[in-house]
Amino acid sequence: MAEEAVFDFIHMEAVSYVFQGGEKVSEDEAVSKLEHMGFATGYRLVERLTRESGRYKDELDIMKYICKDLWVTVYKKQIDNLRTNHQGVYVLHDNRFRLLTHMANGKQYLQYAPRYLAFTCGLVRGCLANLGVTCVVTAEVTHLPACKFQIQVQRG
Amino acid sequence: MAEEAVFDFIHMEAVSYVFQGGEKVSEDEAVSKLEHMGFATGYRLVERLTRESGRYKDELDIMKYICKDLWVTVYKKQIDNLRTNHQGVYVLHDNRFRLLTHMANGKQYLQYAPRYLAFTCGLVRGCLANLGVTCVVTAEVTHLPACKFQIQVQRG
């Protein structure tokens, strides 16, 4: 329990620093900074995590790794549902995303949700980049604390 | 192993963001920002961690808690040595401080060490503040990756 809290709190501080602590930046710039922090973290993390595991069979196999091993490592639960159109689009549903659980449930807070998803979008993109998959990752919240991450693989 | 890496990497990103990613800030300002991020993290963390544990006997008892439970939770090892002058000064020696282990060993890198200690100084100060102890925390590196944290309790 406690170990996870360390990550939650430092993440929360990073969000709050990027949005308020530093010089004035626009919402888009701040989201982009967090996304980059996530990317660098994900890129390094997957290097550490996959050092001893084998190669992945294919793209879907890599996505399953993200949904299971990676998610458990970082968020202590698996992704609840993975869907794909088999043409390079993958949608990962998390019914209770940890970095959103501290937010009060109410429509008026939905506007702030992207701040708490940007790091993770970057994290997923960084992991995938290290595993050889170039992609764009976006996130969407329908009602807190559920959300979905969409991965759009960029072909050669 | 892997869980710790998440914290290490997000911490590293926070350091790099504060020093390079944002607007131009002085070295002192950046260290101070990280210290504040650590403070907020420590303050919240200790609230979570001590929710079920009892009260502490005295100040020394609180310091032992920091050296053992807190350090294990965040850094996966205990503080190697705790000294006190019994007048409100406590010195915590960590012979292999985790956030310094990624740094190459060499005198020329010593100048950057404070960047990797500021968050933790704040973390300790935040934990202690939540437990009712007001203090100043400073850190010093003699040779990497060993370091010591000095806690100076502020009386009444």
From TrEMBL, chains A, B:
This is Trafficking protein particle complex subunit 6B. The keyword Endoplasmic reticulum applies. It comes from Petrolisthes cinctipes. InterPro entries: NO_sig/Golgi_transp_ligand-bd (IPR024096), TRAPP_component (IPR007194), TRAPPC6/Trs33 (IPR037992). Pfam families: TRAPP (PF04051). Component of a transport protein particle (TRAPP) complex that may function in specific stages of inter-organelle traffic. Specifically involved in the early development of neural circuitry, likely by controlling the frequency and amplitude of intracellular calcium transients implicated in the regulation of neuron differentiation and survival. The keyword Cell membrane does not apply. Keywords: Endoplasmic reticulum, Golgi apparatus, Neurogenesis.
